[in-house]
Amino acid sequence: MPLISPPLLQVRLGATSGIGTETARVLALRGVHVVMAVRNMEAGREIKETILRNNSTAKIDTTELDLGSMESVRKFASQFNSRGLPLNILINNAGIMATPFKLSKDNIELQFATNHIGHFLLTNLLLETMKQTAIKQKKEGRIVNVASRRHKLSYSEGIRFDKINDKSGYNSLSAYGQSKLANVLHANELARQLKVTHLFEQEEGTKITANSLNPGAIATNLFRYHSLIDGFVGLLGK
């Protein structure tokens, strides 16, 4: 995506490995103030130190966030909003894949809770800050959901809204596809709503775009729960 010269602030979810780490590194290199939202603070500190060793002028923070917990999401959003920082870019990247059946802290199937619900809630909680930033800086805001080709390989009925927590019919890969399909639909609907809002508030410069993307066939530790997939990543993609 085009990068705008500072002041620019970006919140990066899932920044302690793979695509997240590389995105945080490159954006920091371009002068972006990056806030890494991480579940593992120790890993987050290590990534931050690595980036700073190679780019001493990087402006990068780490803040704890567990997307599988709505309490943690609300706490992160409250802390971020209370800092009074601008927010130009939100990249929803964190995720888990093909996990054994497990419920989140809020008793929601873990992949759906982490990959979709957590991102959905956080985006909503930070959206007003993004709108105010767009107005004040007159710069377009960006929301990016990192999805997957596997959104096409959800359950046969798409998203099983009435069976999210059905252990008996659980398929780890279909559940992952379901969560990625939710990422795509979230971005599509958010883009539609933001476009309508912009039409009514155009004079205030509140334009924010929302997109989802497929990062392609990239081998990361996302596959740690399903070793067989690692060998076929080149065929299946993320």
Secondary-structure map:
Blueprint: E1 9-13, H1 18-29, E2 33-38, H2 41-54, E3 60-64, H3 70-82, E4 89-92, H4 110-137, E5 141-146, H5 172-200, E6 208-213, H6 227-231, H7 233-236
Parallel strand pairs: 1-2, 1-4, 2-3, 4-5, 5-6
Q: Which features does this protein show?
A:
disordered C terminus, 7 helices, disordered N terminus, six-stranded parallel sheet, alpha/beta
Give an account of the 3D structure.
It is a single chain. The chain is of the alpha/beta class and 238 residues long. The chain contains 7 helices and 6 strands, in the order E-H-E-H-E-H-E-H-E-H-E-H-H. The chain has helices spanning 18-29, 41-54, 70-82, 110-137, 172-200, 227-231, 233-236; strands at 9-13, 33-38, 60-64, 89-92, 141-146, 208-213. Strand 1, helix 1 (18-29) and strand 2 form a beta-alpha-beta unit. Helix 3 runs parallel beside helix 4 (110-137) and helix 4 (110-137) runs parallel beside helix 5. It is globular. Mean pLDDT is 85; it is low at 1-7 and 227-238.
